[in-house]
Amino acid sequence: MPRPVEFDRDEVLQGAMRLFWRQGYQKTSVRDLTEATRLQPGSLYGAFSNKHELFLQSLDYYSRALHAEVDRVLRSDPPPLVRIERFIHGLLADSARDPEAKGCLLVNTLLEKPAEDPVIARRVADALGYVEDVFAEVVREAVRRGDLAPDADARAMARLLMTGIFGLRVYARMPVSADTLQGIADDLLGLMGIGQRRVEG
Fold first, then answer.
1. How many CB atoms are located within 10 Å of the residue 50 CB?
2. For residues 20 and 88, what is the distance between their CA atoms, to the nearest angstrom?
3. Which of 9, 63, 104, 199 has its CA 20 to 30 A from that of 121?
4. Total-model pTM
5. What span, in angstroms and rounded, lies between the C-alpha atoms of 32 and 54?
């Protein structure tokens, strides 16, 4: 009996995730995946059953990294509104460092596939729901501190932030300047009374 192929599962998932992120689910073939992961089709199927399951696990891999970053920034020590501002600015920095302008894998997936695949849509919604919940938690903290009005609706503000992030992530895929993206982010934060709008000289 041949020995099972040994591989680093995280390394394989990272390679598959990056490929799906660049090309999308539909445009990624099994052949593409074998090249990206350096696994033969038999080994790939043996480990992940099929392309759909590999995509789900790639989404989970991406989501774990996103949630770790959310916790690192939004559940840190500075005042709550400062944390939100830093998180948004961190997204802009990520976009600036990405020459492929891939945007967000979760948002890209929502734009590509949810209507025909409820399993993938649910997985993405759960991952993004976690981010929204943490935003709502931080907004409630800001209200308790008196940084926002006592009648501020934490859930509504969290949804506004999520909507703004979706837009930023998609907009950043176009050939626009960093200043343009910064201005959009400042306007979004300004709507919520977070941060101060930069004055262009």
1. 11
2. 24
3. 9
4. 0.89
5. 13
